[in-house]
Automatic annotation (TrEMBL):
Protein's gene: dnaA
CDD domains found in the cross-reference section: AAA (cd00009), Bac_DnaA_C (cd06571)
Family stated for the protein in its record: Belongs to the DnaA family.
A GO CC term attached to the entry: plasma membrane
Start and end residues of each stretch annotated as Domain IV, binds dsDNA: 374-494
NCBIfam families in the record: DnaA
Location relative to the cell: Cytoplasm
Protein name: Chromosomal replication initiator protein DnaA
Amino acid sequence: MNEFWQTCVSRLEQDIPPQQISAWIRPLVPLAYDETQAVLRVAAPNRFKLDWVRKNYSLRIEELAAEWFHRPVQVTFELAQGRAGLAPAPAPAAPAPIPAPAIGLLPTETPLPAEVPASSVFQADTGTQHATRIEAPTLVLASQATGQAVYDRSRLNTDMTFDNFVTGKANQLARAAALQVAENPGVSYNPLFLYGGVGLGKTHLIHAIGNAMVQAGTGSKSKVRYVHADQYVSDVVKAYQRKAFDDFKRYYHSLDLLLIDDIQFFSGKNRTQEEFFYAFEAMVAQRKQIIITSDTYPKELAGIDSRLISRFDSGLTVAIEPPELEMRVAILLRKADSEGMPMPEEVAFFIAKHLRSNVRELEGALRKVLAYARFHGRDVLTVEMCKDALKDLLSVSNGQITVENIQKTVADFYKIKVADMYSKRRPANIALPRQIAMYLAKELTQKSLPEIGDLFGGRDHTTVLHAVRKISDARTKQTELNHSLHVLEQTLKG
C-alpha cells in the first residue's frame, strides 16, 4: 500500500505544481485497499481538503490506482480518524451588544504619536486615575440598528461581493476558502490568512466574506468589523491616549468576524501586536472568525511576534497570484460593462496581453481608455484607440524581457533598491533577491553567464552560475520560494 501511494504521489508531482502537492496531496493518508470491492480509502485532515481533493484530483488518483492494481478502482475520501465525528463545541452565550468605540471614528489625519511601549501602557492601565469613557455613536446602538447602520459599523464596502469577484486559476482556491468561511464562520479555518501582491483582490475577497455574512440574515446580530492594520494601530494609540483600553478590548473581543487587512503594517508595533494577540485568543476561544491579509507568507513577515506567526499558521494559508491572461480579459470585460461601455474581446485581449501585473493596473488602464473615448466622442472601443490612450504604458511593457526589467521587478517584489543588484553588499535581504534575479536572467533571457555577471556590477560568471544552481535547487525544496518565483515569472512573462 505504501509503495503504491509513494508511486502515486511521484506521478502526481509530474502534473501538479509543488505548492499544490504540498497543500493537497501530501496531507492525504491512504487507509486501506479492499481487493474484493476494488475500493481505495484515503483520509484527508479536514473537510475543506477532502472536498477540494475529491473535486479536483479524485479522477487522476483513480486512474493511477487502476494502473497499479490492473483493474478499475473506486477511490473514497473520508476525514482522518478523530475528525469525522467531531462536532463544534457549543458557542458561549453571546454578550450584550457593545457599541463600536469612537476611537476609530476620529479624523484620520490627526497626527499620531509614536508607538507607546507596552510597559508604560500597563502602568497607566493599573493606575488609580479615573479613565475617561469614550462615547459611542448612537448610530450603532442595537436598538436602532438598520441595514445601513450595520454597514456603517462594520466598515464594509458593499460593492465588493462574491458575485462581482472575477475568478481564475490565480485565485480560485482563495475564493473557495473564503466561501467556506462565509458559510461556516469560526468552524472550518480560523484564521484564514490570504497573502499576495498589491492589487490582486485580497481586500475585495475579505469584504465579500463580510457582506455574505451580513446578507445571510444575521446582519444586525453579528458584529462584523473590517479594519486596515494602520487603523487598528491608530485605535490602540487613541485608546492609550484616552485611557480607554477597557472599551477597546470589550469591543474587539466581542466581534463575531474581524477582517484585518495588510497585517504587515503591524511590523515593529509591539503594543499593537500584544493587543491583537489578546483579541485573537479571545475570539478564537469563542469560535469567532478572524480573516487576515498580507503581502507575504506568514513566516516571511518581518518584525512580527513569533506567537502571532504561529497563530497565523494554525489556520488555513492561501496565496493569491497575479491573474493569468484569460482572467485579465474577464476582468476588463466585466469592468467595462459595469461602466456602461461594453468592450470588444479583441480590445480586452490587447490590453490584457500588455498589462499583466495586477488588477489595479488593469482598472487604471481601463479608466484611461474610457476617458479617452469619451473625450473624443467615441462610442466603440478599438485596438487603435487603446494604443493611443495607453501609449505611455505600452511603451514600458512592450519590449522583450530584459535583465534590467528583471532586476527592477525583483527589487520591487523584495522591497530593495535596484542599485542593490549591482552593489557589493551581501546582507541576506539583498543577497537572496540578487541571486533570484540572476537565476531569472539565465532562465528568461538569452544572455550568457558572463553577460549577466557584467549587468550585476561586473560579477564573475562563476558567481552567476552559483546563484543559478542554488536557486534552482532551493525552489524544489522550499514551497514559499517556489511560489515567489512563480509569481515573478508570471509577472515578467504575462
